Amino acid sequence: RWAIINGEKxxxxxxxxxDEGTDTGDLLVSDSLEIGPDETAGELTERLARxxxxxxxxALRDIVAGEACLVPQxxxxxxxxxxxxxxxxxxxxxxxxxxxxxxxxxxxPWPGAFTFWRAKRLRLWEAEANDAGSAGNPGxxxxxxxxxxxxxxxxxxxxxxxxxxxxxxxxxxEEFLRGHKMAPGEHLG
Length: 189
Fold this sequence. Notes:
Largest sheet: 6 strands, antiparallel
Strand content: 25-35%
Structural class: alpha+beta
């Protein structure tokens, strides 16, 4: 999740020996994957699980045979990420559009990215970022079209393509707009 949220291009799996510390044991084997440009955390988790499943049997075989080549971790290169909470899902519209888009992808399916519209929680499922500048306050709705609702970010704009209003179901913006009249000039957040 954090790899996507932070805009990383790759992530991976490492199998290591447990010791007294938290994630500090010697490394046995690791492999990496490229993160797709539109990939969500849920999709990436499935791919990582398949990779881990392919890696574990040979790793265990090496351990049992006494052929495991353990490599000490370089602790100065380790990173620690915070545990995600539902509150992490609230969108800060002052962030750059690409950062918001990455947050939406990284929080899909849980805890989910959201904002507020007319005092109701609006979950954001899919969006496109545009670096082009635009006037207006972050969170301001700039245009409402079947292709998406364009919202001003701290830098650039975000076109919302799939949303879910509290109490409703996930839907494409085109379908959402048939039942909900959103207008330019409104504000999300």
